[in-house]
TrEMBL record:
<dbReference type="GO" id="GO:0006281">
    <property type="term" value="P:DNA repair"/>
</dbReference>
<dbReference type="InterPro" id="IPR017961">
    <property type="entry name" value="DNA_pol_Y-fam_little_finger"/>
</dbReference>
<dbReference type="InterPro" id="IPR036775">
    <property type="entry name" value="DNA_pol_Y-fam_lit_finger_sf"/>
</dbReference>
<dbReference type="GO" id="GO:0003684">
    <property type="term" value="F:damaged DNA binding"/>
</dbReference>
<protein>
    <recommendedName>
        <fullName>DNA-directed DNA polymerase</fullName>
        <ecNumber>2.7.7.7</ecNumber>
    </recommendedName>
</protein>
<comment type="function">
    <text>Poorly processive, error-prone DNA polymerase involved in untargeted mutagenesis. Copies undamaged DNA at stalled replication forks, which arise in vivo from mismatched or misaligned primer ends. These misaligned primers can be extended by PolIV. Exhibits no 3'-5' exonuclease (proofreading) activity. May be involved in translesional synthesis, in conjunction with the beta clamp from PolIII.</text>
</comment>
<feature type="domain" description="UmuC">
    <location>
        <begin position="15"/>
        <end position="201"/>
    </location>
</feature>
<dbReference type="Pfam" id="PF13438">
    <property type="entry name" value="DUF4113"/>
</dbReference>
<dbReference type="Pfam" id="PF11799">
    <property type="entry name" value="IMS_C"/>
</dbReference>
<dbReference type="GO" id="GO:0042276">
    <property type="term" value="P:error-prone translesion synthesis"/>
</dbReference>
<dbReference type="InterPro" id="IPR043128">
    <property type="entry name" value="Rev_trsase/Diguanyl_cyclase"/>
</dbReference>
<comment type="subunit">
    <text>Monomer.</text>
</comment>
<keyword id="KW-0741">SOS mutagenesis</keyword>
<dbReference type="GO" id="GO:0005829">
    <property type="term" value="C:cytosol"/>
</dbReference>
<dbReference type="InterPro" id="IPR025188">
    <property type="entry name" value="DUF4113"/>
</dbReference>
<comment type="similarity">
    <text>Belongs to the DNA polymerase type-Y family.</text>
</comment>
<dbReference type="InterPro" id="IPR050116">
    <property type="entry name" value="DNA_polymerase-Y"/>
</dbReference>
Length: 434
DNA sequence: TCTGGGGTCCTAGGACCC
DNA sequence: TCTGGGGTCCTAGGACCC
């Protein structure tokens, strides 16, 4: 493609979407240089199915969601390296990557574990195609140098177009990982299939196609008002965004969480109440830790319990039950107690359960908790206890000190047979050099 | 034996009020 | 036989994201 001249623009803001290619697989490879060019797949919790693949693994035909037990022989045959997912490692690598982005701009929204939006306002600097491409390459190069992770950069004037640009950068190797999408680039928009547009799901696709909307350009050309009345306000925004009119801001200030979920499948199906109770206590404990880490307190707690939706021997059972606290809390003991109460409401004897989750809602700032007239006790003591507990677990490792309710046998725990070491967060996991 | 986990936003509909 | 209308708040569930 030929750009006749570097075109200056009067847009005052540019947005970059930077994401790490094959993030989980790439994280595993960083610490295992011997796996260069070796196909890698990373499995979901419980080693159930494939959730990440290296380029080599994609070329071998492995798909997201492939069942591990089905593809196991082929994995061995093709010499594909398999990992259980290691979120301690991925989360830490994610933090490092974002730290590097912050050298380029302070306007960062961490959108997901492997994607961030970066905002570049003019600030006197007039960006053009050439300088923006250079900026993208510089980000790519710096991240690669300091973390060993490969990233792609898409740059445009709205988040949705930055997503489009990122996709183009990723799909076309000749752009060398960076693509700047100028808002009036109709030819490129035409190339993007409607189901590849951010926010357009599989369900929505056929409905749009029925209206003759097959490409991103078709959607961009649609009447926003008609889209709103025929669909919803979210899709209307997409139309504007595709036309370079920004409706979605880069959220640089992390908004406080509105809910916290801790939910996991069991390592095997369980029917015994006591084991499920232990899992619930452990999940409630984890939820409490998350809550306190963000200085929040929960007004509501609910749990959901279900059997396997794929089971052939019994009907699918799924039930949730929740309570509202008299006063917002972040105390593990109270969370466990409430969670167990809820569990009793949904547990039926004789079923084989697959998964249980604890959900905290109605989150508020822990400082400003509304005191209830019904609870008159000294909360200073229990707060101090929680702080000591959190400090110990932070410095000596998770679960150094914990509540007896979560059990010690952990019969309910998920399978992670092929997990890699927590290279970056645990000294004890580093290989010993002799 | 075996199918992830954690989030947000929007909408519809019910309860309730004046 | 007639059976308002409009507003708010809350909840459940759907849809979507990575």
């Amino acid at each position: 493609m030929i750009f006749s001249q570097a075109k200056t623009s009067d847009h005052c803001q540019w947005i970059a979407l930077v994401d790490v290619n094959n993030f989980y697989a790439s994280c595993e490879r960083v610490f295992r240089p011997d796996l260069e060019n070796v196909p890698i797949v990373v499995l979901s919790n419980n080693d159930g199915c494939v959730i990440a693949r290296s380029e080599e693994a994609k070329r071998l035909g492995y798909k997201m969601g492939d069942l591990f037990h089905v593809i196991k022989p082929k994995l061995r045959q093709t010499g594909t390296k398999v990992f259980s997912s290691n979120y301690a490692l991925y989360g830490d690598m994610s933090d490092r990557v974002n730290e590097i982005y912050s050298r380029f701009t302070s306007g960062i929204e961490v959108y997901s574990i492997d994607e961030s939006f970066l905002r570049f306002s003019g600030g006197g600097v007039v960006h053009n195609l050439a300088t923006l491409t250079e900026l993208g390459q510089s980000i790519r190069q710096t991240v690669g140098q300091y973390t060993g992770l490969p990233v792609c950069v898409g740059i445009s004037t709205t988040k949705t177009l930055a997503k489009v640009a990122n996709r183009i950068a990723k799909k076309n190797s000749h752009y060398d990982g960076v693509f700047v999408f100028e808002p009036d680039n109709k030819a490129q928009l035409q190339q993007i299939s409607i189901d590849d547009v951010w926010g357009i799901s599989r369900r929505l696709t056929p409905k749009l196609q029925a209206l003759g909307i097959y490409s991103a350009l078709d959607l961009a050309s649609a009447d926003p008002k008609r889209i709103r009345s025929g669909f919803n306000v979210v899709l209307e925004r997409m139309v504007h965004e595709l036309n370079g009119i920004s409706c979605l801001a880069v959220e640089e200030v992390v908004p406080p969480r509105k809910s916290i979920i801790v939910s996991r499948g069991f390592g095997r199906y369980l029917s015994e109440f006591s084991l499920i109770q232990q899992a619930v206590a452990a999940h409630a404990t984890r939820a409490g830790e998350k809550l306190r880490k963000q200085q929040l307190a929960a007004n509501k707690l609910s749990i959901s319990l279900r059997t396997s939706p794929h089971g052939k021997d019994q009907v699918y059972y799924k039930k949730s039950f929740g309570i509202t606290f008299a006063e917002a809390t972040s105390e593990t003991a109270l969370l466990i107690k409430a969670a167990e109460h809820c569990l009793r409401k949904v547990y039926r004897k004789g079923l084989l359960y697959q998964k249980v989750g604890v959900f905290l809602g109605g989150l508020v700032d822990a400082q400003g908790v509304q005191q209830s007239i019904f609870t008159q006790k000294d909360v200073t003591k229990s707060k101090a206890l929680m702080r000591v507990l959190d400090d110990l677990n932070r410095s000596h490792g998770r679960d150094t000190v914990r509540f007896a309710a979560s059990g010690i046998d952990e019969d309910w725990k998920m399978r992670q047979k092929m997990i890699s070491p927590r290279y970056t967060t645990r000294w004890s996991d580093l290989p010993v050099v002799r």
